[in-house]
Amino acid sequence: MFSGLELLATAVVALDEAFVVRYANPAAESLLATGAKSLIGQPFLALFAEREALAASLREARTIHWDYAAQNVTYERVGREPLPLSCTVTRIDGTGYALLAELRPIEQQLRQAREERLVSEQQANRELIRNLAHEIKNPLGGLRGSAQLLERELDRPELREYTQVIIKEADRLQLLMDRMLTPHRAPHIEPVGVHEVLERVRSLVKAEFGTEIERDYDPSLPEVLGDREQLIQAVLNIARNAAQAGGKTILFRSRAVRQVTLLRQRHKLALELQVIDDGPGVPDEIRERIFNPLVSGREGGTGLGLSLAQTFVQYHHGVIEFESRPGRTTFRILLPLT
Predict the structure, then answer these.
(1) What is the DSSP string of 199-256?
(2) How far from 328 is each of 211, 216, 253, 286, 289, CA to CA, in Å?
(3) How far apart, in whole angstroms, are the C-alpha atoms of residue 158 and residue 122?
(4) Nearest 5°: phi and psi at 320?
(5) Which of 142, 182, 215, 237 sits between 20 and 30 A of 227, alpha carbons compared?
(6) According to the model, what pLDDT value does residue 235 have?
(7) Is the pLDDT of residue 74 over 70?
């Protein structure tokens, strides 16, 4: 009956009427660092420091069908530091079991909440930008056409310089609007070699900025299913930001990571691509908004690069994370591997 819980990213244990563990899924084994055979038959309350308070909550949940969320429940690990967990308990009827308990590390719970908030904000921002871009494109065409007509009527060359400014700025805005609308193309999915993507970006950044990029690749990584051009663009936008920030050294690193949760889905294996630079770091005032459109820490920047990168990575069911301090900024792309 618990086959559906085997693939869950959340640690789940089933308890009987005496609050004894009768089932534990693989995520619970991993979180509690104990095999299912050792967990089954153990009193659930004995695992935690807050036994009396948790017992009262379990009794209440069993009696009135109430879901109980316990913050700061502490899992006591032998020989290791205690582990703070969030515990949610649900009564289950007609199964031979009494309660189902979900356990999450509090840090992981906060990370998942941040991911969900970011995805929601990205979707709202994309829709806003798409509508805005459509509204701006129409009058831009009229503005450019009027400037061209006006230029034909002007006799003085110095006045034509002003119409050329209008035309060039209209073209620049048109290009910006096109870039805003680009992510809405559906991905073309095919097997993609991750190091082929990184090498392409490496050559582009070197040609544009003259920046040498160091490499630390895991040659055993398999291909990822994805859109080659979108993945190249996502990595390129991050690497360009690193080069424009003034870092002298950029490092590309590839690794495989196991048992990772991406957008509430548990994956046995994921690809991790890192872009590391030694620049000044992300300004504090934009850290919480860095993936929003039109947010830039660089004068003259459009603020679209990281927003587009996040969009492309989310199309691949992945996430982008970053850590930054002066002298070391790491952007991490995580993509599921099958």
Answers:
(1) HHHHHHHHHHH---EEEE--TTPPPEEE-HHHHHHHHHHHHHHHHHTT-S-EEEEEEE
(2) 16, 16, 14, 17, 19
(3) 45
(4) -115, 130
(5) 215
(6) 94
(7) yes
